[in-house]
Amino acid sequence: GAVVSQHPSRVICKSGTSVKIECRSLDFQATTMFWYRQFPKKSLMLMATSNEGSKATYEQGVEKDKFLINHASLTLSTLTVTSAHPEDSSFYICSARQGQGFRQPQHFGDGTRLSIL
Amino acid sequence: AQTVTQSQPEMSVQEAETVTLSCTYDTSESDYYLFWYKQPPSRQMILVIRQEAYKQQNATENRFSVNFQKAAKSFSLKISDSQLGDAAMYFCAYRRRSGGSNYKLTFGKGTLLTVNP
To answer: How do residues A65-76 score in pLDDT, each as one tens digit?
Structure first.
């Protein structure tokens, strides 16, 4: 079945560091990728939607200059948390949809746990 | 705006017994998808089952089945013959057809299922 690979799975870094998270669709072309944030024991909050070759669409309240999203190819999207601070610590999950149709499935990566000291 | 409500933050079931997780949603759309996702401690989101709104027949996947009541906007998940591996956070999710081609998912807050041996 379709696989979405997310890397790294865990990051611990100092405050002020920028962190890049990669999301790859391994065996399908992902026209659309989604980035979510999840706090402990909470639901997934959609941060942004990215379409290959276009600027990402951010949800209300998400700082686009803080969370940079690049979707340069049909198999790779990256999320960069710029100048990360402790409040950015969270679990980040990417998801990729296979194809453009409404009925196309959406596959999730394993997530990245980001801890900012 | 579409909302998804899971009224049971936590549920428990004895191994081999049956449990039902509740989900209600609010929408004015007629064509949409409903999903149940499972998130075990490993944190990867796994699709359990999905239901197309225009299909009256309830979806089933082995031990998992849904009770889809479109008029009542209810979408409950029944797990039969519960196994220890079913222990996880379960999220109900909704995807609408209108509003652009990104077809974003809206998640409920989740139900933490414990399976007792």
So the answer is: 999 999 889 999
